[in-house]
Design a protein that fits this description.
Strand order of the largest sheet: 1-2
Number of strands: 2
Shape: globular
Order of helices and strands: EEHHHHHHHHH
Number of helices: 9
Largest sheet: 2 strands, antiparallel
CATH architecture: Up-down Bundle
Distance between the termini: 50 Å
CATH topology: Rhopdopsin 7-helix transmembrane proteins
Helix content: 55-70%
Radius of gyration: 18 Å
Length: 225
């Protein structure tokens, strides 16, 4: 990661200047997260579940909007605080989603949920300690989430949950999006726009799809309530 005297961070292939719109593809494709969030609202409303039952899902949809705004700030302003605005909503989404899955789909009790959640935090923290943060063009940050998504997809298949196929497909697409994010600087000489914008598009679908999988669990929770 290289900075200039104006504190602009040049992390992506597309940025060649300090201009706000120096990353047009990376900036505009954040609309995909907005679209994903908007598309999740109708099925959430149709579920007719109470606010208490859907509080976590509502927060996930809200975080999708926050991800779009944070990423837009990051790819236009390219400053250290804008990078935090990009990373923090993503991290919150990952953590909340894991808790929601363990409760809604895995149907674990509180000690089990806290145990698996704690294990994820330990693995995630350990990775940042032993592996440089700039590995894979910064994509190493998402490796624990990718592994977790594959594992929860396999678990859902093990318990024969209807969300299994959606989760595993989302995991495969997420893996592809991480590869594209990692290749951004490498493809620069032959593809000046880079490949990071494809990460936005694919990742927006992943976040939409995994959240929809949680929504499909609303009815069983209502029946048990």
């Amino acid at each position: 990661m290289m900075t200039t005297n104006t504190h602009i961070i040049y992390q992506y292939c597309e940025r060649l200047s300090t201009d706000v719109w120096a990353e047009p593809f990376n900036a505009v494709t954040n609309l995909a997260f907005i679209l994903a969030a908007v598309m999740l609202i109708p099925p959430l409303v149709r579920s007719r579940a109470s606010m208490i039952r859907t509080a976590d899902i509502v927060l996930l949809v809200g975080l999708l909007f926050a991800i779009a705004i944070g990423s837009l700030l990051w790819h236009t302003l390219a400053t250290a605080w804008a990078e935090l605005a990009d990373v923090i909503p993503i991290l919150l989404f990952i953590l909340l989603y894991l808790l929601s899955f363990l409760y809604r789909i895995a149907k674990l009790n509180t000690p089990q949920v806290l145990g698996w959640f704690g294990l994820f935090l330990v693995v995630n923290s350990g990775l940042t300690i032993f592996i440089p943060a700039n590995s894979l063009n910064g994509s190493i940050f998402y490796l624990p989430a990718f592994i977790a998504l594959i594992l929860i997809g396999l678990y859902a298949r093990h318990i024969q949950h209807t969300a299994a196929h959606r989760l595993l497909l989302s995991g495969a697409i997420f893996g592809l999006s991480i590869v594209l994010r990692s290749l951004d600087k490498i493809v620069c000489p032959s593809w000046p726009t880079g490949s990071h914008f494809l990460w936005h598009i694919l990742n927006a679908y992943v976040l939409y799809s995994v959240t929809l999988a949680l929504m499909n669990s609303l009815q069983p929770i209502e029946d048990n309530g």
